[in-house]
Amino acid sequence: MSFNTFGKIFRFTTWGESHGPAIGCVVDGCPPNIAISERDIQIELNKRRPGQSKFTTQRKEDDKVNILSGVFEGKTTGTPISMIIYNKDMKSRDYETIKNKFRPGHADYTYFKKYGIRDYRGGGRQSARETAARVAAGAIAKKVLEKKIGLKYKVIGAVTQLGILGCDISNWNDKFISRNPFFCPDKKILKLWEKYLLSIRKAGSSCGAVIELRAKGIPLGLGAPIYSKLDMDLAAAMMSINAVKGVNVGSGMNSAQLTGEQNSDEIFQTRKSTKFKSNNAGGILGGISTGQEIIISFAVKPTSSILKSRKTIDKFGKNTSISVKGRHDPCVGIRAVPIGEAMMHCVILDHYLMNVAQCSA
Question: C-alpha angle 164/170/173, rounded to 5°?
Answer without folding.
Answer: 95
